[in-house]
Amino acid sequence: TTTTTTTTTTTTTNITFPAKEVKYDNVLSFEPSRMRNVAIIAHVDHGKTTLVDRILKQCEVKLLNERMMDSNQIEKERGITILAKVTAVTHCPPGEKEPILINVVDTPGHADFGGEVERVLSMVDGAILVVDVIEGPMTQTKFVVSKALQYNLKPILVINKVDREGAIEGDAESAVFDLLASLNATDEQLDFPVLYGSARDGWVSTSFADRTSWKEKRLDITPLLNTICSHVPPPKVDTKSLFSFLVTMVSRDPYLGKIVTGKVYSGIATPNDLVSVMNREGTPVGQGRVTKIRASRGLRNEELPYAIAGDILSLTGIESASIGDTLANVAIKSPLFTPKIDPPTVSVTFLVNDSPIKGKEGSVFTSQKLADRLFREAETNPAMKVGYAKDDREKLEVQGRGELQLGILMENIRREGVEFAVSPPRVLFQRPEGEPDSKEVLEPIEDLIVEVDEEHSGTVIDKLSRRHGHVSDINNTAGGRTRIKMTIPARCLIGFRPIFTSDTRGSGILYSTFREYAPFRGETGDKRKGVIISMADGEATAHALESIQDRGILFITPGTACYNGMIVGESAKDSDVVVNPVRRKETSNVRSVLKEEKLVLVPPRIVNLESAIGYVQAGELIEVTPQSIRLRKVILDEAKRRAAEKHGNPYN
User: Fold this and answer.
1) For residue 151, what are the contacts with CB-CB under 8 A and spacing of at least 6?
2) Are the beta carbons of 556 and 548 closer than 8 angstroms?
3) Distance CA 121, CA 141 (A)
4) Structure confidence by residue, pLDDT tens digits, 27-62
């Protein structure tokens, strides 16, 4: 244990800041030179979270189950990472007597949560790029690598899943090198170390050949930890300067209040220190006293005596702070640099649920309560924007990166026991920069990678081409698969995933990432069929549904609660059809000698939240409750709908 007196005595007008005595015990408190901050970045399903599990296990952290970093319930159910998370381990590399603190940031791999990646990369000094040995760099790989290069991070390449059949040494490495070169990486960044391993089996090596002998050699994750300590530089900070801290994440605890997480960029803070809060522009937004300093050590939150420059940790007691704000000594008047986050590309409108059967399955929020909940979400997720609709303050417009991100938000609110309604998603168009009055319209374009069996490639290419997809590359991969690379408008992918799953019989893989705003490519001719609409209130009967199923595909089963204006199926025709799904069979007291007719119903198409988001069109809404997902018309009454259509205003 070493004791260092850090002089931070600074005198301003009537303010004196005394020196702080810091004890670096190499257990909770480390000198900046003994810290390493690193993020694990990759495409979805390439093994980031599994690798973090193996790092924790290697450093003698007891794991209760797999994917410990995915603590959110929806993350566990879907097997994806939604929120970036920080943990820390200690490792003593060869030749060192004292351990080094390694702060590891696990990031999402799905493009819709790219805002999480953009925020956390500003905290770290290195990046571990995980790439599947068979798939190589994918769409999200290009996105996260481009962001890492913007922060001058030097990558460590980990080729994962080398135990897979068909793995070839050199292919993935060359593809990553070409990707870095195309993104104008420096010579220093191109000279990256390469490691091979299997995160699932818990080993990493510097040799590809060890994939067949790792058990005999008893390999583990040690080579990766040694590479982090040698390749990633310690944070360039000054403990003698005044304290400054950039807020990167915000959460809330029922006992501690608001918890802000980020990196200490300079100085040292202790509990009860007074700090000022500045927004991105440097405008003061408040002050507060640090009540607790906490950091993740393994899977435990430890309380620290100091917040030392270079460390990634959490502070409590600063209620006025938001993501992107700077917490600093009251003598500091300029904010820290805040990274710019790419703009959202899709929006939906949230409304109060006003259906005839509202309130039977959950709580119906007023517009003000719904607004409070959505603004609270925007506070913790800067990639999402929330505001009142221009034409009606009872409606709230929420902008995000894609259908999945917005769907996760809806699912979270739904699980809180709330009922609400949602409009169809809309793509956010733009005008050319500096030309607000221009007639040219720009729309978001996505990079798309599709991998399907060869027998399905023709169908998929045909349907994507009709949606203005432009093919850039087609390759045959192992196992009789075809990989297709395209650029396609984001609006043309809305609602396509269920069609794609059906066409490929569930065997296809589809990934997309935002590329750029480009000129509008024109209307798509791939239109949806009409819908079957209920004209009555009550419970659906098998007798009525048997005759209705001949007119299209049903979404409901007998016993489902229906109401006038509710969508109960998809019509076989292009126009909407109005039916009575609650009609009962007429009964009489006349006995029939004929055998009762047996009813045969085709299994309905189950409508979940994700498929509903892509299915509904203008003039329709999704009714979301804790127990059900229903589709309905905005105007429930058929006569009023026809009158509105006649007057050219069918959606109000």
Assistant:
1) 121, 122, 124, 339
2) no
3) 14
4) 778 899 999 999 999 888 888 888 888 888 887 665
